[in-house]
Amino acid sequence: MSKGLPETRTDAAMSELVPEPRPKPAVPMKPVSINSNLLGYIGIDTIIEQMRKKTMKTGFDFNIMVVGQSGLGKSTLVNTLFKSQVSRKASSWNREEKIPKTVEIKAIGHVIEEGGVKMKLTVIDTPGFGDQINNENCWEPIEKYINEQYEKFLKEEVNIARKKRIPDTRVHCCLYFISPTGHSLRPLDLEFMKHLSKVVNIIPVIAKADTMTLEEKSEFKQRVRKELEVNGIEFYPQKEFDEDLEDKTENDKIRQESMPFAVVGSDKEYQVNGKRVLGRKTPWGIIEVENLNHCEFALLRDFVIRTHLQDLKEVTHNIHYETYRAKRLNDNGGLPPVSVDTEESHDSNP
Amino acid sequence: TASRAMDKEYVGFAALPNQLHRKSVKKGFDFTLMVAGESGLGKSTLINSLFLTNLYEDRQLPEASARLTQTLTIERRGVEIEEGGIKVKLTLVDTPGFGDSLDCSDCWLPVVHFIEEQFEQYLRDESGLNRKNIQDSRVHCCLYFISPFGRGLRPLDVAFLRAVHQKVNIIPVIGKADALMPNETQALKQKIRDQLKEEEINIYQFPDCDSDEDEDFKRQDAEMKESIPFAVVGSCEVVRAGGIRPVRGRRYSWGTVEVENPHHCDFLNLRRMLVQTHLQDLKEVTHDLLYEGYRARCLQSLARPGARDRASRSKLSRQSATEIPLPMLPLAETEKLIREKDEELRRMQEMLEKMQAQMQQSQAQGEQSDAL
């Protein structure tokens, strides 16, 4: 779904912006069916560059939620992912942090800049999840929060005088932290992912993976993948949303071999072979977070940030949000919710 | 040790410890160890490492969906271990399913009932007529596994410990301790100790060593006590660490954890304190403190207004205890017991008659046989 492509400019205008007659594209493109060389250069391949410039000006939103029992290193991992203190660690041993009695939702926003690109990152933490004696339905506050963000967006969208850029607080990605028991998924993991995989992109990760040997890791992953499959849970990237063969091949490999990523997080640096690396220092060795022989943090990082960031947003918008929207409008008799102020609006004339 | 007195003043009971030792070596040694904690904390591996067995070979781990509604079960496994002429009959009690369900409320009750049932059985046996071969199935120690991934005791840990701490010796351990860096281990241990104090949970107190032990031993003993809860790692795989001699450990890409290396984990401490030095004390505390507490509570509850006159607290003797049906037993059980005791009585009477006849025969020799 593409919105608002700028119109094709004339050659004259193009030559003002671009010094060379035939600029090289910044990103390798899919092959075009028409050989534009024969007819003369049009210049639509520069759309990439234009979009890049626009994005750099406006920046973009990314909202990532972390879910899992306390102590699984959620905050540390997010901080490691974005190389900054974007998530407040509740694990400072000195503080008297009591486990909350119900699941809380805490959203903290930061602006991160890299290479001129501004990202407004929001990390949504869910303390209290899975920590009680009775954890039945503990995912409900999370589901509610996610739907509330869809509702917010919907209300903005159907507004007559709507904002130019609707603030996007929808959860683009939910990292679910699996405890490295080495046995199988816990019943709570299954229940959460069953309920939530239909409303949000779930990326399961195996937390604190430095307690598993290579064999244990591989066996555990296989068992987890099988359990997810048997229970009909589709984690991101979902098979049904692969756009083409290229996507499918790439994603199949990730789905069937790499995921769930077995990760280790750290905010401390140590000296290894003359380099300073992020890691964990134990009496029997130093675990390097970004060393692929040690754990799959780098794979997770590349996946979420370097290759699938935009896709995560698009699937959220085009699939999850659309599903929510359709259901809401359907419940409303095909009409948009009337007032911005009321929660539920029911028309007298359906 | 006191210096020996002169020969003519030497009575000889300094040899008593040796006699006891020989008797127990002959008799063998029973010990029941319970292992509890949520699944996936390395409990089975640790037990196998501690006792160098493979007790869990036949174990089937259920999948997550099956565990959703699984209730806690109690499993017993027995193993006989012989070392240096000493036979130990070790019974391991497992609690699979603990902490699995979505709703774990009251999931510790089956464990509490199990522990109390063993006390009850012992109480019955002790009050019975044939007390020569009482089987002691009481739980002498509970190794409780705490997750290294949490931030101390979780609500479920606290609830479980509070439910059992006055009924069984608790030794808390941190499982899969190779998940932690040294400073994290220290912080977690301190947090757990603080929480135990705050929640007023009694754990097994390793007794102080004798004042006449040497300084080294005392220091070692103090260090061991300070390392509670023990941060343990288990393994039954033998690996070559640094290519020297093979050790039991876990091999990672960044190094190898050695189970028996005191710089890596507290496995040796646990083994030393649990198996090598305090097995007997654990049994004694179970008997003298925990069981007696149970017994007193049980018998006191009979002394409510309306109960029989004979059941007064101070006057309760061992004999009269047998005539009062124990409150926990269902009626059918009581009747069965009465029948069994009747049978025993009859057999005893027969034997007595036989013995009386024998006595009359051998009266001239002046021998006496022990009355049963």
UniProtKB/TrEMBL annotation, chain A:
Record keyword Phosphoprotein present: no
Record carries keyword Cytoplasm: yes
GO CC annotations on file: cytoskeleton
Keyword entries, A-Z: Cytoplasm, Cytoskeleton, GTP-binding, Nucleotide-binding
PROSITE patterns tied to this protein: G_SEPTIN
Gene3D superfamilies: P-loop containing nucleotide triphosphate hydrolases (3.40.50.300)
Family designation: Belongs to the TRAFAC class TrmE-Era-EngA-EngB-Septin-like GTPase superfamily. Septin GTPase family.
Name this polypeptide is given: Neuronal-specific septin-3
Originating organism: Equus caballus
Primary gene name: SEPTIN3
Automatic annotation (TrEMBL), chain B:
Keyword Disulfide bond: no
Spans annotated as Disordered: 352-372
CDD domains linked to this entry: CDC_Septin
Domain (Septin-type G) ranges: 27-301
Keywords: Cell cycle, Cell division, Cytoplasm, Cytoskeleton, GTP-binding, Nucleotide-binding, Phosphoprotein
GO molecular function: GTP binding; identical protein binding
Subcellular location: Cytoplasm, Cytoskeleton, Microtubule organizing center, Centrosome; Midbody
InterPro entries: G_SEPTIN_dom (IPR030379), P-loop_NTPase (IPR027417), Septin (IPR016491)
Biased composition (Low complexity): 355-372
Record has Phosphoprotein as a keyword: yes
Subcellular location, principal: cytoplasm
GO cellular component: centrosome; meiotic spindle; midbody
A GO biological process held by the record: meiotic metaphase chromosome alignment
Marked site (Important for dimerization) residue numbers: 149
Assembly: Septins polymerize into heterooligomeric protein complexes that form filaments, and can associate with cellular membranes, actin filaments and microtubules. GTPase activity is required for filament formation. Interacts with AURKB.
Biological role stated in the UniProt entry: Filament-forming cytoskeletal GTPase. May play a role in cytokinesis.
Protein family (similarity comment): Belongs to the TRAFAC class TrmE-Era-EngA-EngB-Septin-like GTPase superfamily. Septin GTPase family.
The protein's name in its UniProt record: Septin
